[in-house]
Amino acid sequence: MPEGSSFNVIRKLYDKYFLGRRYDLGHGKERQIASKLRGIREDHKSRYLFARSLCKSEERVLDCASGIGYGAFILSKSKHVKSIDCVDKDAFAHEYGSRYFSSKKVVRHHTDLFDFIRTQKTDSYSLVTSFETIEHLDDPQNFLIGLKLMLRADGRLILSSPNEIVLPFNKEQFPYHVKHYTQQTMIELLQSVGFSSINTYYQPSKSSYEINNDPSGAFLICTATA
Fold first, then answer.
1. Distance (Å, whole) CA 121 – CA 97
2. How far is the C-alpha of 7 from the C-alpha of 48, rounded, in Å?
3. What pTM was estimated for this model as a whole?
4. What ranges make up the beta strands (E) of 35-116?
5. DSSP H helical ranges for 54-198
6. Which pLDDT score is estimated for 122?
7. Shortest CA distance to 47 belongs to which of 198, 223, 216, 225?
8. Based on CB atoms within 10 Å of each CB, which residue in 6, 28, 175, 178 is the most buried?
9. CA-to-CA distance for 47 and 10, rounded, in angstroms?
């Protein structure tokens, strides 16, 4: 067998058994889909690990645009997390996540945020997470209003976006995005819908677990209080 073919076979076996089974749903690398946490990109996992580190006691969590729910699975490992509601419009993502990232703490909702709000009690959650979502939205302000409705008065939001300073928005490079955010534009957006106590952090790159205060990072993370 030629060396190239042999390498491809080995790589496929590595992907399947070490990184886990993966799919491309036509969004390239926009959605992280793997049957094992090892197959999820490092920066995506670290956002949920960061959120988990901020959990206190008896947290009720809403993860909006949760995808397959690997993030909810990470959060579920905290003794401080009581329950997690995962909201996503993708039925396949929920089905896949139920198979590979199940947890007794996690409930999956095949719906969008606003339909979910209509069926739920507002002011219900102590923590809302929504990572790498806001850059896809034409109306981010309305989305944030929806998230704020679901938070208790002292509840916290944690979200992320590509850092416009480091990863300038370009439609050819980011065909599924609408806008990237700087620290200032993100703070102004959050303040415009009533969030306060806003803190910003950064991630250096796609391949890094690190989260720090260096504004040269490729991704921006914000925490805010309702």
1. 25
2. 33
3. 0.87
4. 59-64, 81-88, 106-110
5. 70-76, 91-100, 113-119, 140-150, 183-192
6. 85
7. 223
8. 178
9. 31
